[in-house]
Each structure stands twice: as structure tokens, then as C-alpha cells.
Specification:
Largest sheet: 7 strands, mixed
Oligomer: single chain
Number of helices: 11
CATH superfamily of the largest domain: Bira Bifunctional Protein, Domain 2
CATH topology of the largest domain: BirA Bifunctional Protein, domain 2
Shape: elongated
Low-confidence stretches: none
Mean pLDDT: 86
CATH class of the largest domain: Alpha Beta
Structural class: alpha+beta
CATH architecture of the largest domain: 2-Layer Sandwich
Number of strands: 9
Order of helices and strands: HHHHHEEHEHEEHEEEHEHH
Strand content: 15-25%
């Protein structure tokens, strides 16, 4: 058998082997055996030096023909296997476009968080910083540094949840104000502290064992009640509309002296009287006052040099007034139907 006949025989052998290839793994093995750099077809060319010169042309042509035909057959087999694999995949992953589609409902922001964001933006625009603080507090920061000693009667209204080590779930975010005054280096302070607070209260339409507050504090030299009123007037106009007015009524809070309840003119009726304001034309929105000098002194400030004011806003109360919500428990019931109204 001549060398040219050997090349033809190898071609026939390779094509027969290719016919038996049924998957991609076997096809890779075929390529390595016959068409790779060290495969059988390329190995024939190394025998070129062993044959007489007059046979080299015929032998070279036979090897090239074998390589070309086997390569062509290889590409066709590869394409056929890929098409078969794709068809099988599509068969199993077919989608019935006649089936009804799946719709996804876009979520809405809970009004509790919407009010926090809006109030925070208002006070940030006035130069306040935001300090969220700790939800687990010590008695010292939650009560004592806010002028509420162990035997103070106002503790009865702030009965809360205690841990075995004496710590408690905070009843007000004012504790963060005490932290800020003690840790702030005795410099000026302008801050708000939004967050959840906890009291051992019966759940009904207007009360919950958990609710939200945004409490604010300003401490600096020459701070007066006029600064407090101007700040709250600006807040009321930004929050409830430019036509809103506020009034301040005497009240009592241990943390402040003097203390006031702050009302805003009704944004439903404009002050003429309606069901929202119970016919008075005014809606109570927050408590406030000048920081008690004893509190300043306990937190390291000289009350002869520094003064300040504080205020507390009920997040759910503002949201209930703004959106006409009739039950505070709706904020926490995870009912997505409730959120569709906002």
C-alpha cells in the first residue's frame, strides 16, 4: 500500500468514526484523535521525509484531501449536534404564551415612614442633624437625666418594658438628647431624634404599645422661647401649608420649663371648625418648651451661659391628621390594602 493509499484509508476510517459520534463529549474526543495538532491526520505529514521525491506530490495531495473532507464532515456533525441540543432544550423550556400572565404589584411607602422622611427633610433644611439613638436605654438616660427621678409621678404614664438587668425599651427619644449633650463637647446643639418608642399601653384606636416620635433639641447661648416659636411656625407651614398658624398653651413636662402644648390651625377647615378639629379650629400636634435649667446642669451645661428648647412630635398623630387615618393600629398590621390609599 502506497503512502497516498494510507492517507485515503485514514480518511475513510475517520469518516466512519465520525458517523458513530452521538454527543459533544465524543465529538471532542474525535477531534483530538484525528484533527488536533498531534492527531493521526497531521501525523501523516511527518512521514513526508521517508518517501521518494516522485511520490511526495501525490502523498501531499492525499493528506490535504483527507484533512479537508474530515474537517468539513466534523463541522457538519458539530452543527447537527448543537441544533439537536438546542431543540431538546427548547422542548423542555417551552412557554405556553396562551397562559395568563403574572402581574406584580408595586409597593407603597407606609405613611409612618413617609412622615418621618418629610419631617426629617424639613428640619435638615433648617440646619438640624439627625441622631436616631438607641431603642434599648438605661434608666439614667431615659428618665433621670430628663428630670424624672425614681419617685416622679410622671413615670406612671411611661410604664415600659424592662430587661432583667434594669435596662428598658425607651419611652421617648429624648434619651438621645441627653446622650448628645453629655457626649457633644458642651458646644451648640441642633438635632432631631426620630424613632420608635415603647410604653405598656393598651392597644386601641388611638394608643399602641409601640409608636413613633421625632424629638428635637436646640442648645446654645441666648436661645429664647421666640426661637422656639419661630422654628415651630416654620415647621407647621412647611408641613401643613403656608396658611397655617400655631398657638402655644401652657402645659407641664419635667424636661422643660416653661412647657407648652402647640396647636396648628386646622388644615381641613382653615380654622372655621370641622370634625377633624372637633369644631375648635385648632389641632394639637406636639409638646415643647424651654429646656429645664436643671437638665442642662445635669448634662454638663452651665444654665447661666446656655439655654435651649425642645419639642416632641408624634409621628402617627401627624400621619393620622394628614391622611385621615382612624386607627393607629393600621400602621403595624402588614395589610397591603391599607397602603393602597397613599
Amino acid at each position: 500500500m502506497t503512502m497516498a493509499e494510507m492517507a485515503k484509508a485514514l480518511k475513510d476510517k475517520a469518516l466512519a468514526a465520525l458517523n458513530g459520534v452521538a454527543d459533544a463529549f465524543s465529538l471532542d474526543g474525535f477531534f483530538s484523535s484525528y484533527l488536533a495538532k498531534k492527531g493521526e491526520i497531521n501525523a501523516l505529514m511527518s512521514k513526508m521525509r521517508e518517501i521518494p521525491n516522485e511520490e511526495k506530490a501525490e502523498f501531499g495531495a492525499a493528506v490535504n484531501e483527507a484533512r479537508n473532507e474530515v474537517s468539513k464532515a466534523f463541522e457538519e456533525k458539530k452543527r447537527a449536534l448543537e441544533e439537536a441540543a438546542l431543540a431538546e432544550k427548547l422542548k423542555h423550556e417551552a412557554i405556553d404564551i396562551t397562559l395568563p400572565g403574572v402581574s406584580y404589584t408595586q409597593g407603597r411607602t407606609n405613611p409612618f415612614h413617609a412622615i418621618i422622611d418629610e419631617v426629617t427633610d424639613i428640619f435638615l433644611s433648617m440646619g438640624f442633624e439627625v441622631c436616631e439613638g438607641r431603642e434599648i436605654e438605661t434608666d439614667r438616660f431615659n428618665f433621670e437625666l430628663l428630670n424624672v427621678p425614681q419617685d416622679h409621678p410622671s413615670r406612671d404614664m411611661q410604664d415600659t418594658f424592662y430587661f432583667p438587668d434594669g435596662r428598658l425599651l425607651r419611652t421617648q427619644t429624648s434619651g438621645e438628647q441627653a446622650h448628645r449633650m453629655i457626649e457633644g463637647g458642651k458646644g451648640p446643639i441642633r438635632m432631631i431624634s426620630p424613632g420608635k418608642v415603647y410604653r405598656h399601653d393598651d392597644d386601641d384606636a388611638t394608643h399602641s404599645h409601640q409608636f413613633g416620635q421625632i424629638e428635637g433639641l436646640v442648645v446654645d447661648k441666648n436661645i429664647s422661647i421666640a426661637n422656639l416659636k419661630a422654628t415651630l411656625e416654620l415647621f407647621a407651614k412647611k408641613m401643613f401649608g403656608e396658611k397655617r398658624e400655631i398657638r402655644m398653651r401652657s402645659s407641664y413636662f419635667p424636661f422643660t420649663e416653661p412647657s407648652v402644648e402647640v396647636d396648628v390651625s386646622c388644615f381641613k377647615c382653615g380654622g372655621s371648625g370641622c370634625s377633624t378639629c372637633k369644631g375648635t379650629g385648632w389641632i394639637e400636634i406636639l409638646g415643647a418648651g424651654m429646656v429645664n435649667p436643671h437638665v442642662l446642669e445635669m448634662c454638663g451645661y452651665d444654665p447661666e451661659v446656655y439655654s435651649g428648647f425642645a419639642f416632641g412630635i408624634g409621628i402617627e398623630r401627624v400621619a393620622m391628621l394628614r391622611y385621615g387615618i382612624d386607627d393607629i393600629r393600621r400602621f403595624y398590621q402588614n395589610d397591603v390594602r391599607f397602603l393602597k390609599d397613599f
